[in-house]
Amino acid sequence: MLTDKDVNTLFTKSSVVNIHLIFHGYQSSIVSKFTPFFKRLRQNVPMGTFGTTFNEQKVVPGRTQYNEPLVELNETQFFVGRSVHRLRIAQDK
After folding, report:
1. DSSP label at 45?
2. What is the pLDDT of residue 67?
């Protein structure tokens, strides 16, 4: 188990020593859990991906586009800060 101090150190110092953390999980868990780890994670999300429309996610604040098409199976939403881009993943034929 990580202490609150450990979690804070992990998030604030890791990039200084060229360690970049990648977290994967269900959006509902990341948004709804209130442990120190998840609270800190929500405060420090510089970039990532999500597999839903912008309107359905709660990680990146911003303006909703009501006419946004559904995310296809070979697509993901990639964000850096508040800038969100839809990426299509190449598939073999």
Report:
1. -
2. 85
